[in-house]
Amino acid sequence: MRLRATVEIIFGAAIVCSSYAQQAGAPFSPPAEITYRVADIWSAGTRMHAEVFAPVSAQGKLPTILMAHGWGGSVPALRPEAVAFAKAGYLVVAFDYRGWGESDSRVILTDPAPAQRPNHRFTAEVQEVREVVDPLDQTADWLNALHWLQAEPQCDTTRIGLWGSSFSGGLVVYAAERDPRVKAIHSQVGYMDGRTRPMDPTPENKNLMYEEATRRARGELGIPPPLAQVIGNLRGAPIRDRFTDYHPVDEVGMAPNCAMQFVVAEKEELFDNNEQGIKAYHLARGPKNLVVIPRITHYGIYSEARSQAEKLALDWFRQHLKP
Amino acid sequence: MSYENRSQLRMKKTGPWDYIEVPGITHFEMYIGEAFARSSNAAADWFVKYLK
Questions:
Q1: Which residues pair with A41 in a beta bridge?
Q2: For residues A53 and A83, is the Cβ–Cβ distance under 8 A?
Q3: CB-CB neighbours of A267 under 10 Å
Q4: Residue A70 burial (CB count, 10 A)
Q5: Is the CATH number of domain A2-24+34-109+125-321 3.40.50.1820?
Q6: Contact indicator for A75, A53 with CB cutoff of 8 Å
Q7: Closest Cα partner for A81 from A168, A158, A139?
Q8: How deeply is A170 buried, as exposed, middle or buried, from its count of CB atoms within 10 A (0-12, 13-18, 19+)?
């Protein structure tokens, strides 16, 4: 019954997601006071789409906020916050993970490689890995975006913050634990333990994870099709076995110099806050803040509490990234 | 490894564990001669103990 209830709630919440997805094809006109450009970030040889926002009046290096979407999103849904942060004086970079939005996809061979490969090159048919959810691959994308930032002329590399929401609210924690150049994070309604619901609420699901992993390792199970709906109506199937290796909440202490702000929804319905944001807050060793937004559910962070969450992020980044 | 570090390691490990230091050898000398025999036998003994 618990799983069924969770899935039904996710179904309702996914409707909100779809409205964000609809923004993907819309042309974007930045406000006059913002500079805007599209850029390419390379992650393990694959091009990721990024959008760069900065105040027109900016001179010299700027504190920088790196952003990426959660489960099933894309950059257009992040533009309102990106513009607000840029207006507040930040360089802002928002990117699509490999296989999502306007990014290219990782590819896999559909047949064995030929025996003859002169200069390690050959022609082959490939299948793209598109719109699946793999937290470890997506963490690599965050880390590569951080590497990209180091050579961005306007970026003050000593003042980099990460913004993440929902699924990316856990990914920013994972990235900060692995890259000491991250000085602050804002994680809202973050999912930080792939062993907990909605991914793994039952022993049956844990068995399913191992079965899928074994079949995939033996070449009997391929990558899920794009946008497959496996978890409720969320867009994009999870690579289940990669979730058991993903529990940034347990490793928060690895980033003692990163200022961490966790914003959780009081009526969170997708997972237990005590296993996610609240636990991370208690384990964090550096400057930290926990905000419980009363009366909202998970997706309330994108509707009735969106402006409040944006202000919380701005306040946190001002405290920890501004000179 | 110092006594203090060994003690810290012992405290961190919650499952069965063992620690063997082969004296006087460098990294790749573990693959030859007496050191190789010692490390290989240690591995075999460990697996016999926990996998048989």
A1: A48
A2: yes
A3: 13
A4: 25
A5: yes
A6: no
A7: A168
A8: buried
Number of H helices, E strands in chain A: 8, 12
Cα–Cα distance for residue pair A251/A200, rounded to 1 Å: 19
More confident residue, A231 or A179: A179
Q: Are A286 and A256 in contact (CB under 8 A)?
A: yes
Helix, strand or coil, per DSSP, at residue A318: helix
Interface predicted TM-score (ipTM) of this complex, two decimals: 0.70
Please provide the distance, in angstroms rounded to a whole number, between the alpha carbons at the two ends of chain A: 51
The position carrying tokens 């002329």 is A153
Q: What SS3 class is residue B24?
A: coil
The amino acid occupying position A184 is A
Question: How would you classify the pairing of strands A259-265 and A288-293?
Answer: parallel
List helix spans (H) across chain A.
2-21, 79-87, 135-149, 167-178, 203-217, 240-244, 277-283, 306-321
A166 backbone φψ class: left, alpha, beta (φ>0; ψ -120 to 50): left
Distance from the Cα of residue A105 to its chain's centroid: 16
CA distances from A106 to A74, A76, A130 (A): 17, 22, 8
Q: Per-residue pLDDT tens for A98-129?
A: 999 999 999 999 999 999 999 999 999 999 99
Retrieve residue A193's tokens.
């333990």
Summarised one tens digit per residue, pLDDT across range A208-244 is: 888 999 999 999 999 999 999 888 778 999 998 899 8
8 Å CB contact between A137 and A131: no
| Angle (deg, nearest 10), helices A79-87 and A306-321 | 40
CA-CA distance, A245 to A88, in Å (whole number)? 37
Element spanning A259, H or E: strand A259-265
Roughly how many angstroms between the first and final C-alpha of chain B, as a whole number? 31
Distance, C-alpha B6 to centroid of its chain: 12
